[in-house]
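Dear Dr. K.,

Following up on our conversation at the group meeting, I've run the structure prediction for Substrate-binding domain-containing protein from Halodurantibacterium flavum. I'm pasting the input sequence below exactly as I used it, so you can double-check it against your construct before we proceed with anything downstream. Let me know if the numbering doesn't match what you have in your notebook.
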Amino acid sequence: MHGMIRLAALALLLVAPAANAQVADLVSQSAFRVCADPANSPASSRDGTGFENRIAEYLAEVQGLPLEHTWFPMVTGFVRNTLQAGRCDVVIGYAQGHELVLNTNHYYTSTHVLISRPDDPLASVDRLSDPALAGHRIGVVAGTPPASHLARHGLIGRAKGYDLVVDRRVEDPAGDMLDDLEAGEIDLAILWGPIGGPLAQERGLVATPLLQDEGAPRLFYRITMGVRAGEIVWKNQLNSLIRRNQAEIDRILLEAGVPLVDDYGTALKVIN
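The predicted C-alpha cells came back this morning:
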C-alpha cells in the first residue's frame, strides 16, 4: 500500500511540470492577445475608442508586440469562449477576486457615481444617505450594490431599475438610463464609475463619486487584469508591466473620465 502511494506521488511530480509547461505555452510570444467585449463602450469597443482599448494599445506598444483582439460579449460564457479556449491571453478589466480568472495586482480602484443634470440642485448630493434624495426617482441597475443602499434608505420604492447582464450589442442599459435622466423621466442615475463617469463626461452631466456611504455592500471595487488559472509567470509579467507603466495607465483612465479612488474607496486617488 505504502509503495503504491509513493508511486502515485512520484507520478504526480512527473506530470506536474509538463502540465505547467502546457499552460504557459498557451500565452502567445508573438502578439499581445486581448479578450474583450466588442460593444462595452466606454470601456471596450470594436472601433477601438474605449479606454481599455487604449490601455491595451499602449501595453502592446511598450512590449514591442502587435495587438490582437478576440471579441466576445461579456455575458455567460465569456471566459470559457475566450481565455479558457486559448484564443487570447488577458482580459484588460476584471474585478479583483473573481473566481473565473487568475487576477493580476489591481491597477485601479473605482466606485459608483451619482449622475445628475448640471443645473439641478441635486448635483451637490454626494451620498445615498442624503435626506435630499427623499421622494426623487433614481435610476439604478438592478441587483447592484447601490440598489441595496437605496433600499436601506427607503428610496427603492420610486427607483427605476435597469437590466444588469445584457448583450451590449443589442441592449444599452447605461445609455437608456442617461437618456431617461436627460428627458426628466428620472431625477438621478447611479452607475458603476468606469461606465458612468466617461458617459457623463461625454454628455455634459455631473458624475459624483460615492465615497461617503457606509455599510455593506461596498460601492468600490479594485480592478485587475485577468489571465488563465495556473499562469503564474504570465501574471507576474503583467504585474511588472503594470507597475512600470502605472502613470500612463492612470492618465488614460482619467482622460476618459474614470473616477479613480484610493484602495479603500474613501477618497479620490492622489496622482503624482
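Two things stood out to me. The chain has two domains: 2-108+225-256, 109-209. The domain at 109-209 is CATH 3.40.190.10 (D-Maltodextrin-Binding Protein; domain 2).

Best regards,
J.T.
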